[in-house]
Amino acid sequence: MSEEEQQIPPEDANAPINVKVVSATGDEVFFKIKRSTKLSKLQGAYANKVGKDVNSIRFLYDGARISDTDTPASLDMEDNDTIDVMVEQVGGCVPCSS
Amino acid sequence: MDLLESFLPGSSELLRKNRPTFADCSCLFAIPVPTAKALNDETYYSLTSQLSFLARCIDILKDGRDLRQGILLCLPGHTANPSILIAVNGLTKLLEVALSVQRTTLSGFWRTLDDYLDASREQLAHLISSARVRYPNIGTSITKYVDWKHFATLGVRQWVDDEIINHFVEKWCTQSRATLGLSSFFPVNHLFQDNGNCSKVYSIDQLVGNDTLRYKLLRWANKSRRAQKLATFDQVFIPINGNRNHWYSACIDYKRKCINIYDSLRDLCLTNRCKPPEQRKNKELMMALMWLAETLAVIRSRNEVVHLRGDLADWKYDPHAKVPFQPNMYDCGVHTLWHLRHIIDLGFVDGSLDATHRLRFTDDMVGKRLRLAQELLNEDRWPSRDPEFKSDAYCPELRCFRTALNNIVLSTPILVDLVDIDAIPGHLHSSSPFLSTKARSTLGMDLDFILPGIPENGREIDGIDDKSELAHRIMLTNLLRILGAVKGKKASRQFLTRPTQVILPLSPNHGLFGNDGLYSESKISLETLFQRWASESWGECLCLAGAVIGWTRAMARTFSAKEMAFNILGLMHPLLFSITQVEPIWADLNGGMDRLPDLAEITTRIRSSLMKKSDLRRAIARDNAADYKILNGVDCRTKLSSISPNFRGLIDLEKVIVVTGSGEVGPWGSLHTRWEMEARGEFTIEGAMYPHSGV
Q1: Considering the domain boundaries, does residue A3 fall inside one?
Q2: Is there a domain that residue A94 lies in?
Q3: Beta bridge partners of A84
């Protein structure tokens, strides 16, 4: 019994999970990623795929920024979780049109 | 107190005095505030560095305040010692004065920035362009997410970007402990439905009828609350980036029971106020905010139910709360941050502050931009925020660890050059930052421990060469010299209550192994120090702990290197440290291997058996390689090998540098120039003029 329990974590740690990256416009890109892989890799891959500079977009998981050193394991991500992508924001004041 | 004295000369004398007056204390900290005319580069930087120094003093004094409470708790059990109480009360007084000086200086400084916009504009432009050079310890990114590109958006007339806004919202709200600050991406995800443009709000029916939105919101808010370590909150601040070009904000205040939208744009507000309430621009947003307020109330307090839309609602709503307007097209981001500052400090945005208030809005927020930029640069970043302590960014050998009370700095100078040895204690010991910049270049530290050590092996008595001689010189002559230099520095500053502990690396290997060059000789000679500690006069500046280090590297070892490091660390324990102040300690850590008869024979046997094994493996590998060649063809290999033997060992004499003598040579030149780089970040002519005996 106790042996079985001990065997589960290593399997879990290496098992890849599916992650959905959703842009502000609703476009979805799916990634399969190991739980120990750094998410910076995923960020780079996504930016490449959509043809944007990785510095001009922000990745959020549950509203919190994802930093370069985070991994799915460190963020407690689960299978089929969603990462939101936001475009950088600036503001100075041109009156809103509406 | 020595630590304090090293920061603030004169403070320990002051502390011995009974009941120091305010004037006595404040002269220690006096910082002149420059007027607009004098607000130039030099005064600005000297002022900011003095302010950061003051902040550091306050940190240290705050430790003293905790000390005071501890002492007061202990006092009833002992016979009272008034001198301690005088000193401790003096410390408290000093802290009060330091805080009040900090307050007045800062507000005077900020007022100057606000009053003389042109001067601050110039200063801001200069700061933005030269910050990278001025703060070379910062690296490519200032904080985790803010890098130099984002920093530049704080510049004159720039549009501020989300990283800056989010950084300050999170930082200030974490400090405030009553305001929950949401990220600027929060409204994109939860309140608006138009792909990040933030102009079309979810209708109230969509919000109420949709459980997924509510679930998403709760999950998010719980996380931000945890991130900002809030048990509960009175206000929620939401920065909003409307239409991708305008920053404004909303604030839900549970205590005052109101929801306000703060927008610094004049025309929008004035035209909007003329319209009937149901046609006003922010009506939809206000409905969404009401929904938000109701939902967040659930996590704010488990018992309180907030009904905003019912008849009970005694809440007030202002979709265009009265705020100072921006008379330009670039300051809305700074205004938005300032709204938050007001909310945290005053509870609401107050546009009617008089001209002397440090939080008042100005026509051009350039003074605020300068403050924000400076705050960002002074960020408490690992390991230390003080520009004087930037050394660690330069060299891997000087690593800093931040501990609860102070910094531990580990430094590994190479004790070869006499000039360098004399300079090291001078570099480490401190002087006041109120002196000239040149005198300030030292690291402001005291030496706690000295741990010498260098390997040496492979030489019999007929093979004593320059390397053995150098190692001997480092381990013996120069070790004694640096002890002398440290003693001299300490004695001249009268640091008599704070001895430096020297861990002497002794060895049981007095020629037992052989083949060790002059190693045993230098080790034995170190043992004379134990007698000299008592017979000579440096006992109160230095204390000795001799560690007889056993075999950690050889094939037959008694401890692993890590275990031995732990043992040595034990010698630095305060308990043993206090013993060494009474008499030197001799710690035998070698594990008893020197007791073995025929040690050399035994180790030779072990060594030779290992060598035999490795010879065998090598032969097998050679065999395998031969097999491989025959199986896979040998043409290119043979061609190469026919040429290469002729070139083996051949060097181009025109490109060879011949080094005579000894000294440290590294990327920063000699040890002396390396110290300059570590301490100040720049070379000086004086450094270059020093004789570099090594090169």
Answers
A1: no
A2: no
A3: A22, A60
